[in-house]
Structures are given as C-alpha cells and as structure tokens.
Design brief:
Number of strands: 10
CATH topology: Protein Transport Mog1p, Chain A
Order of helices and strands: HHEEEEEHEEEEHE
Strand order of the largest sheet: 3-4-5-9-8-7-6
Structural class: alpha+beta
Strand content: 35-45%
Shape: globular
Helix content: 25-40%
CATH architecture: 3-Layer(aba) Sandwich
Number of helices: 4
CATH superfamily: Mog1/PsbP, alpha/beta/alpha sandwich
Distance between the termini: 48 Å
Radius of gyration: 17 Å
Length: 161
C-alpha cells in the first residue's frame, strides 16, 4: 500500500498539470442570454464584468496571462459551418494553426498567435441559428498546465436552451 502511495505521489510531482486540474475548484458558468455553458476552474480563472450585450463572459488568470472567453451569438446570416470556420481561420491569419477538425455542426482549432497558444471550439445548434463558442488563450511556456484545463473546459461546452 505504501509503495502504491509513493508511485501516485511521484506521478503528481512529475506531472503538475494533473495536480492543477485535479485540485481546481470547478464551477459551471451559464450565459443567461444564449444558455452557453462551460465548466471552469474558479480558483485559476476569475470572471470579468459581464459585457453590456450579455452575450458571454471572460475569465482571466490571476497573472493576466491566460484567459477563457465563452459566448453565444445569433447566426443571423445563416452561415454554414464552412463559412464560420473560414472566418475563424481569417481571425488568426497572423498566427499559425497547428490543429483543426470539425464535425457536421462544430469545429475545433488551435495553434499559436502573438506568442501564445490559442484554442477555439464552436458548436452550432441543430437549427443553425445560434453559435456557442469557447476560446482559451495561454502562454506557450505554460502548455503542460493549461492543456489539461483546456481539455476539460472544451468538453464541457454546451447550451441549456
């Protein structure tokens, strides 16, 4: 039993991202206007004031170097997923996209921009009238810590109505 405990402790010391994700105080944020929902580590990311239009929320790390932005928006022009993905690619035209994949009503992209890692996930409702998005930006030198958090935040993206 003691040997197992030592192995587990050595894994946690060797892998600080695991300790960060496991120790985080995870809370759920739901946007009142669009119902866009994520889980986020409240002890790592602090909420900024709500924007006037009520479309989402930004959460910033204590050092100001990392942020999570979650929001919903009407797809008023009824853009296809292909068009939305093209617009997202244009948003990072001065960066480098290193990963991109999509399904029928969603896409994920990540890469480097302005010396930081970015991750963006967009999901369209079945009727294609609302897009729900989460974007996470963090320093490249903190990749091992934030990658673990990003995976959990991303998987939690959904909407309530």
């Amino acid at each position: 039993m003691a040997r197992l405990l030592l192995v587990l402790l050595s894994m946690l010391v060797a892998c600080p991202a695991l300790t960060t994700a496991a120790a985080a105080d995870w809370q759920t944020y739901t946007n009142a206007r669009f119902g866009t929902t994520i889980d986020y580590p409240a002890d790592i990311f602090l909420p900024t004031p709500d924007p006037e239009n009520g479309d989402g929320r930004r959460f910033v790390s204590a050092d100001g170097e990392a942020m999570v932005t979650v929001f919903g928006g009407y797809n008023v022009d009824r853009l296809s997923l292909t068009d939305l993905l093209a617009a997202a690619n244009e948003d990072v035209s001065d960066g480098e996209i290193t990963y991109q994949t999509n399904g029928p009503r969603w896409f994920v992209m990540s890469g480097f921009q302005n010396g930081k890692i970015f991750y963006r996930k967009l999901m369209l409702t079945r009727t294609l009238d609302v897009a729900h998005t989460v974007e996470i930006i963090y320093p490249a030198d903190a990749k091992s810590t934030y990658d673990t958090l990003t995976a959990r935040i991303s998987k939690s993206l959904t909407w309530k109505f």
